[in-house]
Design goal:
CATH class of one domain: Mainly Beta
Distance between the termini: 26 Å
CATH architecture of one domain: Sandwich
CATH topology of one domain: Jelly Rolls
Length: 710
């Protein structure tokens, strides 16, 4: 499960369009009505468990109806395998705030209850946590446990019936990890946040052919999953992954190259807080619960119309054979980038410590073995502001942390759907067809920033949805800066976008505690008859830049469509100040059914804040190739989703937000995103890397699920 994020990626349902899309889905889901929800209470879970109709044909491999008075420890562990000597654990890589303890795993009235509490506890190594919560897994008891998993399987249908908690910073998940404790793969079946309990994220994490982490994520927005009981399932076949909610297919993935082929185990947990979901606030109720009526695994998905049968025993064999995926019976629902959680293994000790890596929730084994160490995963935020309600003066978007403005409603420009930004990456192929690079390429745009002020014939110092005083931001991601032209500086041949800690008030009266700089080659304002200052269709765009280092600093170089519609969007360079070694590279597009999709990737290299580096994108009709310091670091070759319209350039330095958090005492102000040049050619010119680059480390996806529009 990750930040990515996208997702953290990743995105809540927004706007009237989604309400229209969701209506038939909500109607279809009324069949699982349960008694009215009661305030969470350990003695009164307010549940009316309902058995699933298991077909006669498939074999039941695993079943727990939680009918006892305590957790069945022959089936489950009340901790991750990297627990400390007191059976406590967490995923510190996400900045999660809970410490998982066995006494927060409860069973009563036929329900497993993972309880989140506000209470202080100290770990075996002396770290203090202010929250505790519960986790269970069917994996190994500890690192390299000779007894192996308590339960694992290869192919089949896994399902839970559950009710999730509602409240800021709650993060319930049902997911699969590899039995050999390597990572990837990871498959997230249920993952949502308490401040948006309508949206379920469904994600696969895998390794590309070059050994780099990638992911394919999607989401479905339906009813409030905290208000009632719902089923969440995954049909894992050798040639397909099919996600179901309340018995209806909601997502499908069929690239067999990246579908897991190894044995995997189950995990259920309730996280509290973290980089992706933020911290609890005054509205968050404790204690709170992630309630599970049952957890079951069959050798194949049961036929809901078949007679029910009760297994007399649980087979131990692993199902084999190729299961042919059913023909889809429902319209695919757009995916959203989801956060993954991939902890990096601790420094080898006799007792493995919790991971210290990125907000992916996937443990990596200690290094002193033959098991490869997985990539440090991260979350790629997309930033797609949803347009304001049409007014005479467009207001800043209030949508998702994808940084893509959607225009006000207009008869001239269709408004893109505000559905959950899905994250359906089409994985790169090993031998894509790429247009040969000519020996010479025409220079279409160039700014070496050799003057004493930025060239306003080439750039605007604001987004096109600026207010009447040229101020702007992307409020949808709860970014903390207010962009001001005075923070766009040029000196000594360098563009400097300056982030400052200072108070400013927007025309609408909102107070911001930070200001920063942005420049774009797009339109001066909404529907500006003068058009873009510069845009292009196909070619190679590159900057040479040095990024800032420090918590909550967020520099980006990206492209948006000239017609002010969204998608498409292409992110060429995107880093965060607390991890300036990772560059995020994304494309956002519209699926054939009109839903939002994206493909996201990272590359981890040197500290990009310590020196100057080049970041480029070779945009061709049939391929997107990202370069860092002249070396190809990512490619995408699904021509159906590669943008075909003119696009313009954006450079900005954001401060804070849901994905990157808030500045802290270590953040230095003022700080700068410095750009030596920005250039666009008709094609990528022949180049030889001039800056030494390190052997690439594994990167991760940084996809962030933003909040509902304000």
């Amino acid at each position: 499960m990750l930040q990515m994020r996208v997702r953290k990626s990743a995105i809540a349902a927004l706007g009237p369009i989604i309400l229209l899309l969701a209506a038939p889905i909500l109607t279809a889901m009324v069949g699982l009505a349960a008694p009215a929800a009661a305030k969470p209470n350990e003695e009164n879970p307010a549940i009316a468990p309902r058995a699933v109709n298991a077909a006669v044909q498939p074999t039941m491999l695993f079943s727990d109806d939680f009918n006892g008075t305590s957790l069945d420890q022959s089936k489950w562990n009340p901790h991750y395998w990297w627990r400390d000597s007191q059976d406590g654990c967490s995923i510190v890589s996400n900045g999660e705030l809970e410490w998982y303890l066995p006494d927060d795993v409860l069973v009563s009235n036929g329900v497993l209850r993972l309880r989140a509490q506000k209470r202080t506890t100290t770990t075996a190594d002396g770290k203090v946590y202010k929250y505790t919560s519960g986790v269970v897994s069917t994996g190994a008891e500890c690192w390299a446990d000779a007894a192996g998993d308590k339960f694992g399987y290869q192919y089949g249908y896994a399902e839970i019936r559950a009710k999730v908690p509602k409240g800021t910073a709650f993060w319930p998940t049902f997911w699969l990890m590899a039995s050999d404790q390597s990572w990837p793969p990871e498959v997230d079946i249920l993952e949502l946040t308490g401040d948006d309990p309508n949206t379920n994220s469904m994600t696969l994490h895998y390794l590309n052919a070059d050994g780099v982490h990638n992911s394919s994520g999607g989401s479905f927005t339906g009813p409030d999953f905290s208000a009632d009981w719902h089923t969440f399932g995954l049909d894992w076949q050798p040639n397909a992954l099919i996600w179901y909610i309340d018995g209806v297919e909601r997502r499908r993935y069929t690239n067999t190259t990246f579908i897991p082929q190894e044995r995997m185990y189950l995990t259920l947990n309730l996280a509290v807080g973290g980089t992706w979901v933020g911290a609890p606030d005054a509205s968050t109720i404790f204690p709170n619960y992630f309630d599970i009526d049952y957890a079951k695994v069959w050798s194949a998905r049961p036929d809901p119309t078949a007679p029910t049968s009760t297994p007399t025993s649980l087979p131990t064999s692993t199902p084999t054979g190729t299961l042919v995926p059913p023909t889809p019976t429902s319209t695919p629902v757009p995916p959203t980038a989801t956060p993954t959680r991939t902890p990096v293994p601790p420094t080898p000790t006799s007792t493995p410590l919790p991971p210290t890596a990125t907000p992916t929730r996937t443990p990596v084994p200690p290094t002193p073995t033959n098991t490869p160490v997985p990539p440090t995963a991260t979350n790629t935020p997309t930033r797609t502001p949803v347009p304001p309600t049409p007014t005479n003066t467009p207001l800043p978007p209030t949508a998702t942390p994808t940084r893509t403005p959607v225009p006000p409603t207009s008869t001239k420009t269709p408004v893109p759907p505000t559905a959950t930004p899905t994250r359906t990456p089409v994985p790169p192929t090993s031998t894509p067809t790429v247009t040969p690079t000519p020996s010479t390429a025409k220079l279409l745009f160039n700014d070496d920033f050799n003057g004493t002020a930025f060239d306003q014939n080439k750039w605007n110092p604001h987004y096109w949805w600026r207010d009447s005083k040229d101020g702007s931001t992307i409020a949808s991601g709860n970014e903390l800066e207010w962009y001001q032209p005075s923070d766009v500086l040029v000196s000594s041949g360098t563009l400097k976008l300056r982030a400052q800690k200072r108070t400013v008030t927007s025309v609408a009266g909102k107070v911001y505690n930070y200001t920063s700089g942005v420049v774009t080659t797009g339109k001066e304002a909404w529907a500006d008859p003068a058009g873009d200052k510069f845009a292009y269709q196909y070619g190679y765009a590159e900057i040479r830049a040095r990024v800032p280092k420090g918590a909550a600093l967020w520099p980006t170089f990206w492209l948006l469509a000239s017609d002010q519609a969204w998608p498409p969007e292409m992110d060429i360079m995107q880093t965060i100040g607390q991890d300036p070694t990772v560059n995020n590279m994304n494309v956002h597009y519209t699926n054939s059914d009109g839903s939002f999709g994206s493909s996201n990737g990272d590359w981890t290299g040197p500290d990009f804040s310590a020196g100057w580096h080049t970041f480029g994108l070779d945009w061709q009709p049939n391929a997107l190739l990202w370069y860092v310091d002249g070396v190809e670091r990512r490619r995408y070759t699904d021509a159906a989703f590669i943008p075909k319209e003119p696009m313009y350039l954006i450079l900005n330095l954001a401060v804070g937000g849901d994905w990157v958090g808030a500045p802290d005492a270590s953040t230095v102000f003022p700080s700068y995103f410095e750009v030596d040049y920005a250039r666009v050619w008709s094609a990528r010119p022949n180049q030889t890397p001039t800056i030494p680059t390190p052997t690439p480390k594994h990167g991760g996806s940084r996809v962030f699920l933003p909040k509902v529009a304000q």
